[in-house]
TrEMBL record, chain A:
SUPFAM superfamilies: PLP-dependent transferases. Gene3D superfamilies: 1.10.260.50, Aspartate Aminotransferase, domain 1, Type I PLP-dependent aspartate aminotransferase-like (Major domain). This is Cysteine desulfurase. Residues 4-365 form the Aminotransferase class V domain. The keyword Plastid does not apply. NCBIfam families: FeS_nifS (TIGR03402). It comes from Methylomonas subterranea. The gene is nifS. Transmembrane segments: none annotated. It catalyses: (sulfur carrier)-H + L-cysteine = (sulfur carrier)-SH + L-alanine.
Automatic annotation (TrEMBL), chain B:
PANTHER family: IRON-SULFUR CLUSTER ASSEMBLY ENZYME NIFU HOMOLOG. NCBIfam families: NifU_proper. Belongs to the NifU family. It comes from the Bacteria. InterPro entries: BFD-like_2Fe2S-bd_dom, BFD-like_2Fe2S-bd_dom_sf, FSCA_dom_sf, N_fixation_NifU, NIF_FeS_clus_asmbl_NifU, NIF_FeS_clus_asmbl_NifU_C, NIF_FeS_clus_asmbl_NifU_N. This is Nitrogen fixation protein NifU. Residues 135-184 form the BFD-like [2Fe-2S]-binding domain. It comes from Methylomonas subterranea. Pfam families: Fer2_BFD (PF04324), NifU (PF01106), NifU_N (PF01592). Residues 4-125 form the NIF system FeS cluster assembly NifU N-terminal domain. Residues 222-286 form the NIF system FeS cluster assembly NifU C-terminal domain. May be involved in the formation or repair of [Fe-S] clusters present in iron-sulfur proteins.
Amino acid sequence: MPDIYLDNNATTKVDRAVVDAMIPYFTEQFGNPSSIHRFADGVARAIKKARSQVQELLGAEHDSEIIFTSCGTESDSTAILSAIKAQPNRKEIITTAVEHPAILNLVDHLEKEGYTIHRMPVDKCGRLNLEAYKNLLSDQVAIVSVMWANNETGTIFPVEKMAEMANAAGVMFHTDAVQAVGKIPMMLQDTKIDMLSLSGHKLHAPKGIGVLYLRRGTRYRPLLRGGHQERGRRAGTENTASIVGLGVACDLAMQHMEFENTQVKAMRDRLEQGIIEQIPHCFVTGDLNNRLPNTTDIAFEYIEGEAILMLLNKAGIAASSGSACTSGSLEPSHVMRAMDIPYTAAHGTIRFSFSRYNSMSEVDEVLKVMPSIVATLRKLSPYWDSVNNTPVADPEQAFQPTYA
Amino acid sequence: MWDYSDKVKDHFFNPKNAGAVEGANAIGEVGSISCGDALRLTLKVNEDSEIIEDAGFQTFGCGSAIASSSVLTEIIKGLTLDEALKVTNQDIAAELDGLPPEKMHCSVMGREALQAAVANYRGEEWKDDHEEGALVCKCFAIDAVMIEEMVWANKLRTVEDVTNFTKAGGGCAACHEDIEAILEKVLKERGETFDPNAAPIEKVEAKAEKKPLTNLQRIKKIEEVIMSFRPQLMADGGDVELVEVVDKTAYVNMTGACNGCQMSSMTIAGIQQRLMEVMGEFIKVVPASQMPAAGLVNIKEAGHA
């Protein structure tokens, strides 16, 4: 069996149709879209088409609300830095404790520069308290930035409602929708969302292309100043081939939206149920009733995630983990910590994320190998009683190592 | 994913001596579930000869933690306790053909479990002597706690000070922003302000111990260190020679298989690390091809003179 790729929240395979659409913009139509000769005559038109394809997927009112960037991180940085530059008297930012590092590391940095950062906590299922959110909104807040869907657990935040609350309080609202675009139907023109980030490589377009949606009329300051590209809102020669590719990818995402929410979801559910039934002492993290259709994050207690990934990799299966070791830090994922997942489980979380390229037979293959992988590692674990095949009684008591 | 050596993978996929040894009379438990690494080492020690007759491990941790535990049990079986105590974490890492810098703490954990087990056998109490922080310098595997302690203890003021005392920041330099943040924090606690242009402080202890080297002595010593790398390189069909020393920069020629090979930058980093250890000062090792033109002329003239 060929290798099985279940790490689609990390990145996705570029769709063949996307690659085919891109090739001419490297070879024949390689001109600068700002030029007027025949090497460029189709390029500006192709970008215009791609812009309308993105507009369509997002349900934006105008195509000029779509600004092409280099990645999701650039879109996030542009949005937040724009809001604070445009409103220099507002010194507070509201976000959540479970955002992507593209947001969290940026606001940590702004905190050092004197901004007050409100990082809203989540409950054990990864949900926000909207009452508490309401109390934070004030005329001191420059921007609210809340992710549409969490990259680790797939948990969906009520961003449309939160944007309305922000709007009512006169506060700008940005959402990092990198994981949500293409999986959740959107109609931005009916919302109060002012800015939205998306990343091409999460929806079968190439890496190195992103979008910032900027609602018409939202006060804005560019991150990159220079040429007139993107109407002067993001200077720099257009990444033409990737823009064309992203347009096609958005088209395909529209066509597969229903498939994503039925077939892909069915694969995810079968894997999740199979694992929970077959393997003791594991549980699904996040808000189970309100998740992306393609994501499941399962905590395997008393073993460590990187070790699980290495054995999965050996079996030809790709997934990812929230363990400390996979990132080189000492703490497990901030998302797991924010949900108060115990350390015995947080280090053993594995995220399986599907795409339309996966199949049920792949799910069965994972279900075949997963129980023995977990059993192998538990045999090595000081927190596991191999004789009785249960965790040692009161693991925190039975094994109390010297802190090293 | 990490770039693990084949030996790490082998010990992970086929761990040796997994599980607790029956009738163990020396048990060492180290690590912490919060950090995602914990290890219980069980030994059976012959009470007459103090030879470790059997060793077993139980590890909660990543691939390299399990591999380090496994290789540790292989190394120490058959050794006496005193011999086993001489095993360093570098020995463990070397036996695995190296570990990524972020993972060196796995080998440290192995050595600590061994110390704890021996202490347990001898009825002593073993105390961990260091706290571990977030990794700052990836070139030399130096963490934030270590840097902060050194900044406090030695009243360090600049990034260069930190590099001179801990090696942190002496490689790729990408962590200088983080080191500055630590300096800012500690200096603030001391009631001072961080000035990136402050003059570096003298390394007092090194001076007190011995007289400063003459220029010639210093260059000879640098050459000695570089020569010590030759047998290893020649075995791989390469070679290295010292070309020139200008202030804190040593220019070297890498030849043969080393020249242009991917390993050459790693080798240079290794030489630089050893040089700094031996010389007790910050020294940068640079390929002679990157020597400023004026320096080249000088050498040529000196050679023909």
